[in-house]
C-alpha cells in the first residue's frame, strides 16, 4: 500500500524494533513462570470440566490440590499424566476423585516418565484435534455461506440472561450484524475461576461460561445459515482467567476474543506478572484456534486525552503486536484496537481522527483493526450521539478498518435496547455503502494537517517506545505512562497465583499449539 | 406581542410548533410482527398513554417478529409548574480558585477526599472526570486543586476497602461513583456503604457524596448521603459542597 501520510518508514521500523526488544525482555520472565489459571487451562484442555457440590469448578479443585501438595511448579499435565498411569482413569474421573477426597494427586507414586508423557500427549492431541476441527468448520462456513464485507459490524448484547441474549443476537444478525459480542457481567474479570453452566443473572452483562458459549454458538450458526452469512461470536479473554476463557472459546468455536497484553494490569488492577504470563498462553490458544484477538487501546483514551495521548495508543499497538507474534498469532488475526474519542467540540477533530485511523491502517496493513466508537463524549443527547457515530463510521470506511464496534446513540444511558442496535446498524450500512471507495479516491495534501498529525504521533510513539526499551515495561507501567495509570510490580490482584516453574515443568499445549497447525 | 397566547404556567403541556399543541415524539418497540396490526397496536397503546391523534410516522421490522415505531401524539395532560419544588444542592458554586481561597481562609489545612467506583462497577469515567488532574471538558479535576488531597481508588472497590482507605487517609469526604444501574444494583451498593459507615460510627465524621448519570440529589438524600451529583457536574461543584460542609458541620 502506498502511504497517503508520507510516513517515515525508518521511524516505523525503529519503533517496531524497540517494541520487539520490549516483548523479548518480558518473554524471558514469562518463560520462567506459570500461574494457577494457566494450569487450570491445561486441566480443561485435558478434559476436566464440571463443578463440585459447592459449584467450585473441578479445574480449580484439581489445581488447588496440586498447589497444596507443593507440586504446581511441575505443571498440572505431569500430575494428571502420573495419575492416569497409576489409576487408568481419565483426567475427568481423576478430578472427580480428587474432589471426593479419594485421591491426593501429588501423593501417588511417581510412574515411569515415558509412560506419563505418552498418556499426556495422547490426551492432549485429542483436544488439539477437536480445536483443529472447529477451525476447519469455521473455514467451511466461510467458504459456503460466506461472510459480511469489512468492516465487520460488531454489536454487543448484554442482558445478563443468555437466552435473552440469543433473541437480541439473532435480531441483530438479521438486521446486518457480523460479530456478536456477549458482554460479561461486570465483576467477572476479577473472579479467579470460571463459572459453570447456563446463566440467567448478571449485571451489565452475562457470565462467560462454556455452556453459554455453546448456546450462543448454536444460535448464531442457526441464524447464519438462515440468512446466508457466517456470524462471528466474540467474548472477553481478559481478567484473572485469560487462558481458561481462551480454551473454552477454542473448544466452542468462538471467532473473536478481547485479549490485550496490558489491559488487565492497567484497568482492572490485576498484577502485572500474573497478566503477562496469562496473556501468553491465552494468545497461543487463540492463535491456534484461528480466533481474531482484539486489543484494548481504546481504553487509554477513556482515561487519557485522545489528542495528547494518541501516541500511547500506537506504542501499545506495537507492543501488543510483538507479544502476539511471540504467541504465534499471525497478523491477519490481530485486531489491534483504537478509538474515536476526541472531544466533538474540537476544531478539526475529525481530521485528527482520520489521521490516526489511516496511520494505524498503514502501519499494520494486514491486521483487521478494531475501531471503537465514541463513549467518553456521549452525553445522553441521542441525536448528536447518532451524528458522532456517523462521523466515526465515515472514518472507518475511509481508512478500511477491519472490525467496527458500532456506537449506540444511547451510549451513556443504558445497555443497548433492541432498536438502538437496529438504528446503529442502519447508520453504518448507509455510510459504508454510500462511501465505499472513498479511501481509494481521496488522497491527503502533502504536508497538510492530516499528514503532519500522523507524522507527529508516529514520532512521539517511537520516542516513547525507545524510552520503554531502556526502562523495561514493568518500570514504565509503575510510572504510569500508559493511560495515566500507575501499577506496582507486586501490587494488584492475583499475584499469589504466580508460580515459578521447576526444570522439569511441561505444558504439552505450548508445544502442540505454538506457531499454528503443524 | 399581540395575537400570541401567553404561557399558562399552571397548565403546561409540550410545545411542538404552536403553544399547547401538546406534540410529543416517541420511539419504542413492540413484541409483535411488523404490519398494519402492529401499527394499530402502537396507536392504541399511545392513546392509552394519554395522547390524542397518535400517528405512526415510521415503523420497521426488527427481524425477530418485533416492530420498531417512531410516533407522534398530542399530549392531553398538563402540569402546574408553579407548585413544583425539586431538592437540589442549594449553594452558590465557587470556581477552582475560589475553592482554593476558601480552604486557605476557613479550613487552613489540606482537605482529604477519597473517591472510588464501588462494588462491581468498572466504569471510572465519572470518578475520573471529577478527580483526575485533567478533569473533563475543560474543568480540572480535584487532583489539580491546591489544598485538596484527592485519592482516586479506581474501579470495583469493595465498600469495606473504601472505608478502610478513608480511615487510613483520614478523609474528610468520600465520593462514590455509580455508573452501572442495571437492575438497581447501585441502590443496594450505596445503601450498604451508608449502613457500614453508620456501624463504624463514621457517618457524622465524614462527608458522603455520590454521583453518576442516574443519581439525583433527591435519591442521594433518600439513601442517606449528604449530596448527589448527576450528569453535567464538575469538580468545582463537588469541591464547593465538600468545603462548605466541612465548615458548616465544624469538621475543621
Automatic annotation (TrEMBL), chain B:
<dbReference type="GO" id="GO:0046983">
    <property type="term" value="F:protein dimerization activity"/>
</dbReference>
<keyword id="KW-0413">Isomerase</keyword>
<feature type="domain" description="B12-binding">
    <location>
        <begin position="110"/>
        <end position="252"/>
    </location>
</feature>
<dbReference type="Pfam" id="PF02310">
    <property type="entry name" value="B12-binding"/>
</dbReference>
<protein>
    <submittedName>
        <fullName>Lysine 5,6-aminomutase beta subunit</fullName>
        <ecNumber>5.4.3.3</ecNumber>
    </submittedName>
</protein>
<dbReference type="GO" id="GO:0047826">
    <property type="term" value="F:D-lysine 5,6-aminomutase activity"/>
</dbReference>
<dbReference type="InterPro" id="IPR028991">
    <property type="entry name" value="KamE_N"/>
</dbReference>
<dbReference type="InterPro" id="IPR006158">
    <property type="entry name" value="Cobalamin-bd"/>
</dbReference>
<dbReference type="InterPro" id="IPR036724">
    <property type="entry name" value="Cobalamin-bd_sf"/>
</dbReference>
<dbReference type="Pfam" id="PF16554">
    <property type="entry name" value="OAM_dimer"/>
</dbReference>
<dbReference type="GO" id="GO:0046872">
    <property type="term" value="F:metal ion binding"/>
</dbReference>
<dbReference type="GO" id="GO:0031419">
    <property type="term" value="F:cobalamin binding"/>
</dbReference>
<dbReference type="InterPro" id="IPR036843">
    <property type="entry name" value="KamE_N_sf"/>
</dbReference>
